[in-house]
Amino acid sequence: MKLVIRKPEVRDAERISVICSTGWRETVEGQLSKTFQQQTVNYWYSSEKIIQDIKKGSYSFVAETEGTVAGVIGGGMTGGRSAEVYVLYIDKKYRYHGIGKALLHKLTEHHQRKGAKKQWVSVQENNELGMPFYKARGFVQQSVKKTKSAAGEVQVSLRMKRDI
């Protein structure tokens, strides 16, 4: 499978929307209500929002294989010498082929060029795909962050960090 890592383009927005909304729902299934899931997807992963975020640079890279966007990563500098992975999702059909690893590597190189020495990520509690992935790449849990939604639901994220 030939893999191309490139900057996202506006034409990728619909595909990014599908990958991110599906991936996010998989991570919160059984933890957050369907109503909250739909509200979140409608806000963060609508094509219009993704187009805005592509233009702002919030989505850093996409992985393309066989002419299809198979995964996406976004991140940025968060101050000083720290960087953050905001989003990383791989289409289910393309998982376990090294795409997530390749995207994280590309983003990490980008962060290092910008002067980052630390890289952070928030992982949804009980994320059975994300936790082992990040741990295998040297991320260590630093704290637990609880966020209450407008509907009163509590979303629990694990804050993880690694030196880069």
Can you describe what's shown?
This protein is of the alpha+beta class and 164 residues long. The chain has a single domain (3-163), classed as 3-Layer(aba) Sandwich (Aminopeptidase), CATH 3.40.630. The chain is 36% helix and 34% strand. The chain has helices spanning 13-28, 34-44, 47-56, 99-113, 130-136, and strands at residues 3-6, 61-65, 68-79, 82-90, 118-124, 140-148, 154-163. β4 (82-90), α4 (99-113) and β5 form a beta-alpha-beta unit. The longest helix is centred in the first third of the chain and has 16 residues, at 13-28.
Write a concise synopsis of the structure shown:
Pfam families: Acetyltransf_1 (PF00583). With 164 residues, this protein is an alpha+beta fold. Helices cover 36% and strands 34% of the residues.
Topology (SSEs and partners):
Layout: E1 3-6, H1 13-28, H2 34-44, H3 47-56, E2 61-65, E3 68-79, E4 82-90, H4 99-113, E5 118-124, H5 130-136, E6 140-148, E7 154-163
Parallel strand pairs: 4-5
Antiparallel strand pairs: 1-2, 2-3, 3-4, 5-7, 6-7
Helix pairs in contact: 1-3
Domain N-acetyltransferase: 3-164
GO molecular function: N-acetyltransferase activity
Protein name: Acetyltransferase YpeA
* Uncertain runs: none
* Integer tally of domains: 1
Q: Order of SSEs, N→C?
A: EHHHEEEHEHEE
Neighbour order of strands in the largest sheet: 1-2-3-4-5-7-6
The CATH topology annotation reads as: Aminopeptidase
Counting copies of identical and different chains, the oligomeric state is: single chain
* Strand percent estimate: 25-35%
Instruction: Count up the helices.
Output: 5
Q: In angstroms, what is the radius of gyration?
A: 15 Å
Q: What class, by secondary structure content?
A: alpha+beta
The CATH homologous superfamily:
Gcn5-related N-acetyltransferase (GNAT)
Average pLDDT rating: 95
Helix-residue proportion: 25-40%
Overall 3D form: globular
Any guess at the CATH architecture? 3-Layer(aba) Sandwich
Largest sheet: 7 strands, mixed
The CATH top-level class label: Alpha Beta
- The overall strand count is 7
Question: What's the end-to-end separation, in Å?
Answer: 28 Å
